[in-house]
Amino acid sequence: MSRASRRPRLVDVAEHAAVSLATASRALAGRAGVSAEVADRIRQIARELGYVANPYARTLAGGATSTVGLIVHQVDDPYFAEIAAGVIQLAAEQGLLVQICQSGRDPDYELHQLRHLIAQRVGIVLISGSGYDDPRMESAARAELAAFQDHGGRAAAIGRHALGVDAVLPDNEAGGHALAQHLMDLGHRRIAVAAGSAGLTTVADRLAGVSAAVRQRGRSPVDLAVVHSAFTRDGGRAAAERILNEHPETTAIIALNDVMAMGVLSTLRSRRVPVPARMSVVGFDDVSVAADLAPSLTTIRLPMTEMGRTALTLALKPRTTRPRRRPTGHLLVVRDSTGPAPTS
Amino acid sequence: MSRASRRPRLVDVAEHAAVSLATASRALAGRAGVSAEVADRIRQIARELGYVANPYARTLAGGATSTVGLIVHQVDDPYFAEIAAGVIQLAAEQGLLVQICQSGRDPDYELHQLRHLIAQRVGIVLISGSGYDDPRMESAARAELAAFQDHGGRAAAIGRHALGVDAVLPDNEAGGHALAQHLMDLGHRRIAVAAGSAGLTTVADRLAGVSAAVRQRGRSPVDLAVVHSAFTRDGGRAAAERILNEHPETTAIIALNDVMAMGVLSTLRSRRVPVPARMSVVGFDDVSVAADLAPSLTTIRLPMTEMGRTALTLALKPRTTRPRRRPTGHLLVVRDSTGPAPTS
DNA sequence: CTAGGGTACGTAAGCGCTTACGTAAGCGCT
DNA sequence: AGCGCTTACGTAAGCGCTTACGTACCCTAG
Asked: Smallest Cα–Cα separation from A179: which of A218, A206, A219?
């Protein structure tokens, strides 16, 4: 290996400016104790030299850690991809770097990743994905995050509320309610839900909204069948199979997220069930491809990219005594996958 | 803030094991100079204490940097999301963390991100996205990577070959050739290409394959119209508009990637052009949603996730004098978006 | 004119690790 | 027995920063 000149260090800047290390450090950090003109000169020289602080030295010496750890289930799931895009965007604007981990939807592995991230001394942890109904499932992660914050770390959650940290939370219940309402308005009376794994709060909340809407419909009762499966495309396929087999009279399927809806549509296509003529389908999230599916998907729009940005914003603000909660808006987007209930 | 006990440090491990810092360090790094039994004892104690080396201290002291920087255009573009998923997967298996950056398809910003990553002292840089025809566009990045490697950094590229580093490269030309061949076999003689920005090697290569296939068809000549636009869904929409307006006799559109194809399909849908009855459409990449589009997309399959893994694998191997090139397989996947040319 | 206090800067002590070098013990060889 | 070599370990010098503390200096008030 050749050895081109090494990167400039802080001493180089200090020497050029004829000041001490401490002064140079203070000037570049923008801290008090340096006269304005000296600080300007130092910054100028640093720029000319192309000086960039070594983050390892900086962090080791007790400075701020400038990296944010982001945990998602799967980056190539469009829901998480959009969240990640938002986080990365804002991080770049702030000069932060983001370390990304996939939990693969496995709570144990997720905990492992969380520990790993903290062990790697990231300054901020952002965790997305659904929480678990059973509080014991969350308690380990919760404890880990609490200890992390006690050591000065900052954390925020996206779409989960039981972690004891700031969170940005969509109103899953209202969204579920709106979907069911939309279908009932179209005359559907036999509705099936392709739900994600039982035990997930996201599933429970969205489902609760659906049930509530159905229950409010006192007269002309509605049949509601719930089939649990994985929150993935294949999960959606499996759920649709079961719905077609076990609840053949169903006229509308509520998939609890868009990725499942894609699986549902796929199964309906291969089973030659016309959508929406014979079966209406709705999703949840409005991932960007939802509009391009066959047929385009009626769904609840969540501002994923913005959610990612908001979560980082929360984590960047000084911590409050009680965890903050930022609600996100949501919107029913009606497209071509829903239509009037077939008159059998 | 409470101060729960600090994380264990190497001295703690050393003390418990009654050895020196140096010995503990060697044992945990698996380096020579420690007897097997002592090394085992040290590792055992480290495990019990839950010791995890501080990566900042380790790196500062000259140890290996264990973080890989990944540059993509946009994480929520499915092509890049799948690459990222592969990189993150393998990195996790290897105990590495990945820092991810978005270049937003802007060569200047990409260079900025590259510099930032290197300034942050990542150990490995992986760069994806298309290269540029004009070698001067790549030269700055190339120089940056060369200097980086001279300082012991490792780098690999995904889908770009002019960077002077190891690369995993799909055969874009053969893919383009296969697509054109497929359409000509179906009887299409007026083909339009919805190409990404001119100046991108990926575009040029795929286009070259298309042209070659058309040229080889000596008898029964084929009209080929090329429309350049952005490598995005909106770019696909715009290209399709122009094709419909300026080349109304077109019977098949080759979108040079799937994301553009999504835009093309979207435009055809709103313009009520039946696919494939009136117009065949093909894409390139086979992103996971390609099968769920309306209609499902005929395309060239590239193993994106595997490409991500391969790139990291290359970077992890000791460097060779000449940059290595790993070809990737590709496969024509025929679905419902292509059909026989309409007999006008 | 001097005590007290603020400001601007320098000195030096780490942060937690890796590693070059030093040393003592054990080995085989002449 | 004495030599040199290897092996196993310890000592200590950094890596490039931040920051507590120390020291000039200047300004104001008494």
From this structure: A206
